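note to self: the first set is below, dont mix up w the second
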Amino acid sequence: MNCQRCGRETFLPFQCPFCGGQFCSEHRLPENHSCQKIDRARTSRQETAFPAAPSSYEYTVTMGRTRQNRRIYFSPKELKHLIVAAFLVAGVGFSSFLYSSYFAADWITGFGVFGIFALILTVSFLSHEIAHKVSAQRRGLWAEFRLTLWGALLTLISFITPMFKIISPGAIMISGSTGLEEMGRISIAGPATNILFAAALSALALISSDFQWIFFFAAFLNAFMAFFNLVPFGILDGFKIFQWNKKIWGVAFAASVILMIINYTSVG
């Protein structure tokens, strides 16, 4: 959306707690956007000069607007970003074909096999991100997928490197105010989707004879996606889930590790 002061487009707008307007980082302070309720802002600062000790801890995220309509919505701009991300992820899947034995032996069959692999990889990534989006939008939050510069570049570099494979062209940007439990539930949606994918692909591998290894490998990648995102550190999903409910985090983390080990040994 656009800043209501300067009109500049910003992906993560700041919402003024006094007038309710949406502004960029430069104009987020009341005095920088000529807030109509500047007197309230000054009074609030005076009252918090010597704040009382908090009675409880509350986790909130407030970076922008909320949505009154809780239906699932994809904006035209978001769809463009999702399409680019899908091509980037699929490209990483296809690029693996260039460094496989299929390329030299039977490139026609290999192209088809890795086409299936690229499709599974793309669906797995997009499903992870859209699961976050659906969970957030159902709670009335603004949530849209956006490409990130460094993530897209690292994914692009993964096209040409045989071992260095990173799939992180972008992420769901969430804006609004929510508590610790809601943020935990939104965060678990992505890894849980990958765990379900890993389990389903493992089952397909057991009943498939022709492309068993590719299903095992795709299952391993889904388990690894879940494992990586469940690490309780920094901006990763695992940190927010761990803060919300350690038991749920432990079950999900253990499931991702078990599925990752089983499918890795099956591929080998």
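second set (the one i keep forgetting abt)
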Amino acid sequence: MKPVKTKDGYIKFDCRWKEARPIPAGRLKTINYWRKKLYALGMIGSDKKGIGFGNISQRIGRTDMFIITGSATGKFKKLNNKHYTRVTGYDFKKNSLNCQGPVRVSSESLSHAAVYKSNKNANCVIHIHNQKLWKKLKNRVPATSPKAAYGTPAMAREIEKLFKQTDVKDKNIFVMAGHRYGLVAFGPDAASAGKVIIMANRGLYF
């Protein structure tokens, strides 16, 4: 089927969701801990209009599949296993994604997929919003093109490019220049990815 484009020329996000049973809570303990911590810092949550921002994911084994917070979960202070879904496949060119679980996922999941595809050592990806940190790191760490909007094939391509052309693997964090106040950190586990954000926020990193 030919991809459908939106009025602004982007390929419309196609979420192919299959409702399924929740992921066992025990598998979510660590990423849920870090999600709660970053929510408390205002880096994941929802704005005054109720629009959610930020999410966290975890690779499944050694595959390119991963578990991620579902769409519209930013407004919740605490999450449980009914708020997470498995991403089982994706296609950047078609801006499509397959997922299974209690909830759908947002188009931002493709950015997580691009990190996992590009760096086999990354087992956790955290997307946050923070104005101060975004401005501080914009010229200090790798950044995607200002022309690449979040949740688009262009953003996924930009992330893949960062891993090929910059030292982002050493920095473990990058700025989404075309996604206002958006940053992405990653690491071999949730604690490593989370600590990059905490240290950067305290001025102890970069």
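remember for set 2: The helical segments are 29-40, 109-118, 131-137, 153-165, 168-171, 190-201.
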